[in-house]
Amino acid sequence: QVQLVESGGESVQAGGSLRLSCAASGRTFSNYIMGWFRQAPGKEREFVAVISRSGDNTYYADSAKGRFTISRDNAKNTVYLHMTGLKPEDTAVYYCAARAGGTWTSVKDYKYWGQGTQVTVSS
């Protein structure tokens, strides 16, 4: 079992930046590939970014490339999502998740989820 708690979401103006954090507890954090997802009102949850166990490899959704950076600190059991150049369409609840297996980008392949943190971007 892995418990995940996100923080850092808030309301910002378009063009602003935020850093989301996800603190993990329970099983060995470094054993898990970690992902960030988001869900806007009325929409399905979608993949944002993923990072390998060591942090050496990352992959982003097209909407996040060039603006978002995922990172992790295994000593602190924490994964981060640094978001810059925020747009109103980035407004969503952001979730971190620990992958169980399978693909790196599919919601169904992630076993453990946090409760989410709200990001609101105003124009």
What does it look like?
The model has no long low-confidence stretch (mean pLDDT 96). The radius of gyration is 13 Å and the shape is globular. A hairpin with a 4-residue loop joins β7 and β8. The relative contact order is 0.31. The strands form 2 sheets. Strands 2, 4, 5, 6, 9, 10 and 11 form a 7-stranded mixed beta sheet that branches. The protein has a 4-stranded antiparallel beta sheet with strand order 1-3-8-7, with no helix packed on it. The N and C termini lie far apart (40 Å). The chain has strands at residues 2-7, 11-13, 18-26, 34-39, 46-51, 58-60, 68-73, 78-83, 92-99, 110-113, 117-122. It has no helices and 11 strands.
Could you write a compact summary of the structure shown?
This protein has 123 residues and is mostly beta strands. The protein is built from no helices and eleven strands.
Protein traits:
mainly beta, 4-stranded antiparallel sheet, globular, 123 residues, 7-stranded mixed sheet
Q: State the helix count.
A: 0
Number of strands: 11
Structural class: mainly beta
Major β-sheet profile: 7 strands, mixed
Distance between the termini: 40 Å
Provide the helix percentage. Answer: under 10%
Q: Which runs of at least 5 residues are low in confidence (pLDDT < 50)?
A: none
Query: Cα-atom Rg, whole angstroms?
Result: 13 Å
Large-scale geometry: globular
- Rounded mean pLDDT is 96
Assess the beta-strand content as a share of residues: over 45%
Order of helices and strands: EEEEEEEEEEE
